[in-house]
């Protein structure tokens, strides 16, 4: 028990030391306009709030949420490998990964179109 406590304290000390070192050595510029302004959903927060919301940005945000949640759906697939039929496991996981890859391709194409503008 004492060993675990000592290792935890050493780890905590090292983490705090690295964070303190990084914050003191980092370049802090207070006058940087871009870092001081908040990023709000892809539009300028200092402008008018009456502009229509971009549907393309909304779709990209929804796809990001889907890819953010996908890990909770991928983890149980590996754990039920021994319990289920191999054909149903392979079919389900392949179909799920194909859907994810199609979404990733769509997001990549949308991002490429945004950067080309």
Automatic annotation (TrEMBL):
Catalytic activity line of the entry: a ubiquinone + NADH + 5 H(+)(in) = a ubiquinol + NAD(+) + 4 H(+)(out)
EC number(s) on file: 7.1.1.2
InterPro entries: NADH_UbQ/plastoQ_OxRdtase_su3, NDAH_ubi_oxred_su3_sf
Record's subcellular location: Membrane; Mitochondrion membrane
Transmembrane segments: 6-25, 57-80, 86-108
GO cellular component: mitochondrial membrane; NADH dehydrogenase complex
EC supergroup of this enzyme: translocase
GO function terms (MF aspect): NADH dehydrogenase (ubiquinone) activity
Protein's UniProt keywords contain Translocase: yes
Signal peptide (UniProt feature, chain positions): none
UniProt-listed Pfam families: Oxidored_q4
Superkingdom, natural source: Eukaryota
Sorted UniProt keywords: Electron transport, Membrane, Mitochondrion, NAD, Respiratory chain, Translocase, Transmembrane, Transmembrane helix, Transport, Ubiquinone
The protein's role, per its UniProt record: Core subunit of the mitochondrial membrane respiratory chain NADH dehydrogenase (Complex I) which catalyzes electron transfer from NADH through the respiratory chain, using ubiquinone as an electron acceptor. Essential for the catalytic activity of complex I.
Protein name: NADH-ubiquinone oxidoreductase chain 3
Species assigned in the record: Pseudocarcinus gigas (Tasmanian giant crab)
Organism taxonomic ancestry: Eukaryota, Metazoa, Ecdysozoa, Arthropoda, Crustacea
